[in-house]
Write the structure tokens for this entry.
Amino acid sequence: MKQVNNKLSLQLDVSDFLPADKEEKQSLVIMRESVSFWRDGVRRFKKNKIAMTSLIVIIFVLIFAFIMPGVYPYSYEQQVRGSENLAPMQYSQQELELKAAGGKVFPHILGTDSLGRDTMVRLMYGSRISLLVGLVASFLVLIIGSIYGSIAGYFGGKVDMIMMRIVDIIYTVPDILIIILLMVTLKYPLEDLANNVPGFEWINTIGVGLICIFIVFSLLYWVGMARIVRSQVLSLKEQEFVTAARALGAGHGRIIRKHLLVNSMGALIVTTTLQIPSAIFTESFLSFIGIGVAAPMPSLGSMAADAIGGIQSYPYRLMAPAIMISLIILSFNLLGDGLRDAFDPKLKN
Amino acid sequence: MYAYITKRLLMSIFTLWLVATLTFTLMFMVPGGPFLAEKAPSAATLEALNQKYGLDQPKIVQYKNYMVKLVQGDMGVSIKQRGRTVSSIISTGFKVSARVGGLGILLAILVGIPLGSIAALNRGKWIDNVIVVFSTAGIAVPSFVVSTLLMLIFSVKLDLLPTYGLTSWKHYIMPVIALSLYPSSYISRLMRTSMLEVLGQDYMRTARAKGLSQFVMLFKHALRNAILPVVTYLGPLLAYTLTGSFVVEKIFTIPGLGSEFISSIINRDYTMIMGTTIFLAALIIIMNLLVDIAYKIVDPRIQFK
């Protein structure tokens, strides 16, 4: 009853002024955990149903193209005699006899072509070629474009002007004409290199056609990437953390690699992803007009070209590569859009 | 403005020279010549033929001769197609290609712009969703897939349209649709985003507030501003149509410039390779230049530099 005694007292309770203990402090923290750029992006990406679906489709296609051929009983160049021009799930006379005798015959799920090759396994290899071209070409474009663009943007001035003038010129060159010419031209020196010069035999294992495509794409398609990287670097290099890094004695190379490129990673990922479908598009086009990957290696484009001759009698042969190529391009497009929305909303225009 | 145009023009000429030189170099790197594909001619005949077309001279002299003639507008005679000049082959082929390609571009614009605008005006409604789904799918389908599927449905299954040649209006339907599917989808996406942006601008609210009719508002204020990105796309659109024409002309056996280009490379018809490449490159480069200038005239806010 101490308080009652003196009504004019402030009646303060000393215990209210004790330092807060840890538990009390914890209960006062209302801020959520700080979210990093990446976590935020991934969270946004996961919410995007279309992008997630396309990612799952891409994973399935990857499994279909890279793992399935290993366990599939036919190979892409294997010609099954007597089983030419089979319809989907159809067995040839021989295979029926073998089955009747108790042997096991794996069904031709999508039929066979005029040479008796299983369409399903050729579709897998064709998708593999498309994906390889898309992924490797975009990777090369990413490397060349980001090095070139960051150097131009970082050093600025005369260096930038000369480097970007070169980009402008390559940009105005009609790429498809040069691609076709290069594809035809590069084949011979590469074949020569692979067959006659020791140390270059690996070219044959990958295939001259594929190497040609990689070279052509990395020669022509990096300009778009270089422009984007340059504009990113131009705005980033004025920021304080770059000045800070320079004050601490970081060299040009370190600033470009550790600060500028890392900070434009969002734009780099998005642009690279969107580069994949366009590379696949061009590869299938080249194979379709007959100057892409060399036979007997199938490509989705050359499979479709082969199917045109028999379009009257075997329309399903056209459908398989047509659906596959459209599916691959569509899902990479949607994945790229989703990544852009999640990681680099500024790029959306 | 004239300084800008002059600068761009000089750069275009330089690019064109670069393409010509590159083509010339690449062309002679390919083994085999134009006369090897035929019944092997005797050494004497071969020598005479080489002499006739000037192929016996050193490459650098050939290059100089070709360039001098090119500047005078002479592309020489075709080596494989006897008695025809390269310019006459190009002009015949281009007339065919330009009809199909031009119709394709026209259709793409006529379909793409209204679809994109309709989608933007009905944002979030079912019609918007339908247009977005179709235009997203349209971008993913390569022209050879569209062409072959059209052929499968309309020629093989329904037997409505002819599959090859270019003799009546019916022959144009499938190639033109095949060429325009991708660009019309692209334009409609482009149009939708830019229309949405324009519709959110303050001047649109002002237009509505001062009581303009829906028609005037849409056509005088919204469309004119929203159409700008489509104008910039016209350059790439031409380049795309060219790529598409290689495929479409092959599938529908149309005797256009695209098929001439491919066959000249396969036949090593040197003068034809040079001629078609330079012609097509010039076409695209000039188009891009015109589009850039037009863009700056349409939108006065853009500075010439």
